[in-house]
């Protein structure tokens, strides 16, 4: 595996890479969800690049940039074990050099839910993903469905800016009790960790109602919210049935994603299920 830390090194190395090339963008603290993305890329592509970059531009001023989990040595060892061909580990200064003045702003799917809760978040996501796709020029880039709104934003980014990379979204990786795998799970205390699966239980219960014939978005949202709020350690920030491409409120027809953001103690967790 080649470790690359500058854009010039990345471009030079990937010019010689066999195609198709898969890219797995990450912020490190790699876990089973990332492994599933790397393995999918490995099975579908002739070469695999993984980026590890904690992107400061997607964190708000009062968010957890400084304490975000970081495990660089373990991450690189995992990439070696999983057969990644390239590890791109740029510094903030490499990605955003002095005088950097550009930002990518997406409307549409970026505006509700996380966009409303964290107003600058998706500008930071769109900017760094656009840079990574232009730097690496992969045939396919891999993301997890756990961040379903992020997937919709990135697909709109690629479509609207004519970036010639396919976006692959893989199913959410989960712990045995249903908790969506996330780097931020490390923040949970033992008691909070025991309570955290309530988010997925609530989403799954609403999905069961949908499959049993309940097609009213408000009823599905209320059922999910009620289960979350019944847990003494949990509070729901939002529960929304939305079109998974546009993030607009679900009309009752076509694909539907039920998305939730909840706090377990002081830890904010995201999850979603597709209703089908």
Blueprint (SSEs and pairs):
Elements (H helix, E strand, L loop, with lengths): L1 E3 L2 H9 L5 E6 L5 H13 L2 E6 L19 H11 L3 E3 L3 H4 L18 H4 L3 H16 L3 E5 L3 H13 L5 E5 L19 H6 L2 H14 L5 H13 L4 E9 L13 E9 L2 E9 L1
Parallel strand pairs: 1-4, 2-3, 2-5, 3-4, 5-6
Antiparallel strand pairs: 7-8, 8-9
In words, what does this structure look like?
The chain has a 6-stranded parallel β-sheet with strand order 1-4-3-2-5-6, sandwiched between helices. The protein has 2 domains: 2-170, 3-Layer(aba) Sandwich (Rossmann fold), CATH 3.40.50.620; 183-275, Pantoate--beta-alanine Ligase, Chain: A,domain 2. The radius of gyration is 19 Å and the shape is globular. It has 10 helices and 9 strands. By secondary structure, it is of the alpha/beta class.
**How far apart lie the N and C ends?**
40 Å
Rg over alpha carbons: 19 Å
Largest sheet strand order:
1-4-3-2-5-6
- Helix count, DSSP H or I runs of 4 or more residues: 10
How many separate structural domains? Answer: 2
CATH level-4 homologous superfamily of the largest domain = HUPs
Percent in helix: 25-40%
CATH class of the largest domain: Alpha Beta
Mean pLDDT: 98
């Amino acid at each position: 595996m080649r470790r690359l830390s500058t854009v010039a090194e990345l471009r030079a190395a990937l010019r010689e890479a066999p195609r198709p090339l898969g890219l797995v963008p990450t912020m490190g603290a790699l876990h089973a969800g990332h492994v599933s993305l790397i393995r999918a890329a490995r099975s579908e592509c002739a070469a695999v690049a993984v980026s590890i970059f904690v992107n400061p531009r997607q964190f708000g001023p009062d968010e957890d940039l400084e304490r975000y989990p970081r495990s660089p040595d373990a991450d690189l060892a995992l990439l070696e074990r999983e057969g990644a061909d390239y590890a791109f580990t740029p510094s903030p200064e490499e990605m955003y050099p002095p005088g950097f003045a550009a930002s990518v702003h997406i409307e549409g799917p970026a505006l509700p839910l996380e966009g409303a809760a964290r107003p600058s978040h998706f500008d930071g996501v769109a900017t760094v993903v656009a840079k990574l796709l232009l730097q690496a020029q992969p045939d396919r880039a891999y993301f997890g469905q756990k961040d379903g709104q992020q997937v919709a934003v990135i697909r709109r980014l690629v479509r609207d800016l004519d970036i010639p990379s396919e976006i692959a979204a893989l199913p959410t990786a989960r712990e045995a009790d249903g908790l969506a795998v996330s780097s931020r799970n490390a923040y949970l205390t033992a008691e909070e960790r025991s309570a955290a699966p309530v988010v997925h239980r609530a989403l799954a219960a609403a999905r069961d109602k949908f499959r049993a014939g309940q097609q009213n978005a408000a009823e599905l949202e209320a059922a999910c919210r009620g289960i979350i709020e019944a847990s003494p350690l949990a509070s729901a920030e939002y529960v929304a049935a939305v079109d998974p491409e546009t993030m607009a409120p679900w009309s009752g027809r076509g694909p539907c994603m039920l998305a939730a953001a909840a706090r377990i103690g002081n830890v904010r967790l995201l999850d979603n299920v597709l209703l089908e």
